[in-house]
Design goal:
By secondary structure, the chain is an alpha/beta fold. The chain contains twelve helices and 19 strands. Helix 5 packs antiparallel against helix 6.
Length: 361
């Protein structure tokens, strides 16, 4: 892979009262390569924006240098042909979407701003790729936050640079649009050989889509590597550790632990069993250890505990589950059978199952 950007001895931060304030701490030498999507993650205040702005040339480094195309000093015109930037700030005004996207061709159109046939094709491709071609004639002031963000991405794509840096690009998008955007960025990295760096709080999406993660800790530590490596070595969990939040390595998701979780036994297979387990955990139940063979929704197989399984302390004072849920499959869809001290009863939905558990407690 061709290296598009690399740093040497970089320290980012700001000066206050004549002293340097590092944000984050000492950084290793970094690289962004062609065809690579990197996600920059970290809690609020860890220095993500400072690092991104320094790499983009918006903020001077305290020490060291940022090398783009092998050079540390580029003119604004040269930089505009090497790197495009999408910030999270909303852009408004009387410009139309088409006019905004067309500005992406400014580094190539000369001071008169005349667009050639090739420029027009690049603008059209950028708008179609990002889905803004349907409202190209609307003024920026009429756009929703999500539409505005897509228009800014289209402008960056029209700039057609080897490097693309984005600050919280999914911040104003609904959930399906966030997934589509992350998939699009990964596709652009692979198919157009761009190097893409984005800061984001979409931790679970980043784990699925990033080729590499740069992870900033609140204390200034920096970790980088494949998403799976950072999960397995504990760096990911420790960066976001909170007393009331727990990262589940098995599913790659964050869960809210319950200090007094009530043990329950669960039996079932496939997607219904997976979502039943999720619902029970949300309601403060602990699905007994050893019942789930796979956390993947498509392959979950959950069986009831045997007497020996209860030997391990799985609830308050080592209590064994006092209730058992069996997920049943049928032609009309799944149903749920609750077995407890009150007997055995079948329910047509998880909602009614949870209501019964609450009434029986």
């Amino acid at each position: 892979m061709n290296t598009l950007l690399h740093t040497e001895g970089l320290q980012t931060g700001y000066r206050s009262g004549g002293r340097k304030v590092l944000a984050p701490g000492v950084l290793p030498d970094l690289q962004i390569k062609a065809g690579q999507l990197i996600c920059l993650l970290g809690p609020n205040g860890s220095g993500k924006s400072t690092l991104l702005r320094t790499l983009a040339g918006l903020q001077s480094p305290l020490e060291g240098s940022v090398m783009i195309d092998g050079r540390s000093r580029l003119t604004p015109a040269e930089l505009a042909r090497q790197m495009s930037l999408v910030l999270s700030d909303r852009v408004s005004g009387s410009l139309t979407v088409y006019s905004l996207v067309s500005l992406g061709r400014y580094p190539y159109s000369g001071w008169l701003g005349r667009l050639k046939e090739e420029d027009l094709k690049i603008i059209e491709t950028a708008m179609i790729t990002t889905g803004v071609d349907g409202f190209r004639d609307r003024h920026l002031s009429t756009l929703s936050d999500g539409e505005n963000q897509k228009a800014m991405l289209a402008r960056a794509l029209a700039q057609d640079t080897p490097l693309l840096l984005l600050d919280e690009p999914t911040a104003h998008l609904d959930w399906p649009s966030r997934i589509q955007l992350m998939r699009l960025l990964h596709q652009l990295a692979v198919e157009t050989n761009r190097g893409i760096l984005l800061s984001t709080h979409e931790l679970e999406l980043a784990l699925q889509i990033a080729d590499e993660i740069w992870l900033l800790h609140p204390g200034g530590e920096f970790h980088r590597g494949a998403p799976e490596d950072l999960v397995l070595n504990g760096a990911f969990e420790s960066a976001f550790a909170r007393q009331d939040v727990h990262f589940d390595m098995h599913t790659g998701t964050f869960i809210i632990p319950h200090s007094k979780a009530k043990p329950i036994s669960l039996e079932g297979e496939g997607v219904p069993a997976y979502w039943t387990k999720r619902a029970l955990e949300r309601e403060g139940y602990r699905v007994a250890a050893g019942t789930a063979h796979a956390d993947d929704a498509a392959a979950a197989s959950i069986e009831p505990l045997t007497t020996d399984d209860h030997a391990g302390s799985i609830g308050p004072a080592g209590a064994a589950p006092s209730a058992h849920v069996r997920v049943l499959s049928g032609t009309a869809g799944p149903s749920w059978c609750l077995i407890n001290g009150f007997g055995e009863k079948e329910y047509p939905s998880i909602t009614l199952l949870l209501q019964a558990l609450q009434e029986n407690n």
